[in-house]
Amino acid sequence: MIVLGIETSCDETTAAVVSGCRESVSVLSNVISSQIDIHKKYGGVVPEVAAREHILNILPVINTSLKIFNTQYSISNQYKNKKYPIDAIAVTVGPGLITSLITGIETAKTLSYAWNIPVVAVNHIEGHIYANFIKNKIFDTRHSTLETHHSKFPSVILTVSGGHTMLVLMQGHGKFKTIGETRDDAAGEAFDKAAKMLGIGYPGGPAISALAEKVSNYECRVSNINNNIRHSTLDTRNSKITLPRPMIDGVDFDFSFSGLKTALRYALEKDKQWEKRIPEYCAEFQQAVIDVLIHKTIKAAKKYDAKTIMLAGGVSANKKLREQFALKTSELLPDTVLQIPDLKYTTDNAAMIASAGYFKAKRKKFTPWQKLRVDCNLAL
Ligand code: KG4
Ligand code: ZN
Whose CA is closest to 177, among 157, 207, 162, 192? Predict the structure, then answer.
């Protein structure tokens, strides 16, 4: 089955063509027009600016994606009564910015009507999760790198992006249960706000991660899951930076990152020399987030007897998070497979939307184009 994916929920205009077969999809094209450079100067996404850019970019992005898929195809081709070579159109309908989502949805409606191809409405978070079903080199804690995809349920999925931080229990395709979520800021949002405080640019995650890499004598003790992960100390020029690990010992699987952000602010206010130690602050902030995410995910995987742990969302691009997850999973849950999407499918992209669309189309979960609606607060 060939699926065209369209994603415009935030600040990336993206279209992809994937081919789905049994339990995985192959990406045939994945085109992303990023607006990061435009929003950088404002320190975050400006919805009105994002909306205008989507309108300008959506048709060229879809056309390029179709051309990469097959040089003879474009939006305006007539195909001389031949069936258009696409079986379904998958489009993000929420959650996200209303003024951004609408461009993708209206385009999908038009193409569905013009080409007479059914549409699948995709939840953006479900899309991030289905990045794990894209055929690529999957990191497996027991077999190092695997070429083939093997998904085993139940799966515990850590979904961490700029808008969401959730632990999801997946018991089969389309069967999701949220078992924990953030009570305030999302993990990516915390990275972005911390980076703003440190004056190191937007988006914050990659900026913090790059600066944290510069700290060579950073000592991190992600302890055994049975002990508290409390110690992540930094001993640079004899001064210690220690930030809290919010809710790490909580009985539930919820998260909270706004206290961590406030703790960083207080630490910076007290430290007259903080500008000289930005990489150290980055390393400690990053480690505090990682400790909480890993601890809670492994605890959930144990509780629900998960066969696989999956990571999803922009924050799962974090190198240290990926490395430490691999280490901790193999050490503490040797029978559980850890699946991490290829780096290029962690941040917003249409291939993940097409992937989720393929699995929904297989179950005949289509939405007539007349009934497609934006839902900014769509739940999983
Ligand atoms: O999934 P995504 O592209 O968009 C949303 O759906 O929100 O995630 C974007 C978020 C941003 O907050 C960004 O700072 C964060 O993902 N991010 C990272 C890294 N790369 C992107 N956070 C930590 N480390 C990274 N390497
Ligand atoms: Zn996203």
Answer: 157
Report the pLDDT averaged over residues 9-25: 95
Write out the E strands in the chain: 2-7, 12-21, 24-34, 88-94, 119-123, 138-140, 144-146, 155-160, 165-172, 175-181, 235-236, 239-240, 308-312, 337-339
What does the pLDDT look like over 270-294, one tens digit per residue? 999 999 999 999 999 999 999 999 9
Q: Does domain 138-340 have CATH number 3.30.420.40?
A: yes
Q: Which two three-digit tokens encode residue 269?
A: 């206010």
Fold: same for 2-136+345-371 and 138-340: yes
CATH number, span 2-136+345-371: 3.30.420.40
| Residue 219 pLDDT greater than 90, yes or no | no
pLDDT digits (tens, 9 = 90+) for 76-95: 776 555 667 899 999 999 99
Around ligand 1, the residues with Cβ closer than 6 Å are 10, 161-163, 188-189, 191-192, 203-206, 209, 313-315, 317-318, 347-348
Q: What residues contact 362, with CB distance under 8 A and at least 6 apart?
A: 1, 20, 173
**Cα 353 from chain centre:** 11
The ranges assigned to domains in the chain are: 2-136+345-371, 138-340
Closest ligand to the CA of 12 = 1
pLDDT in tens, 313-360: 999 999 999 999 999 999 999 999 999 999 999 999 999 999 999 999
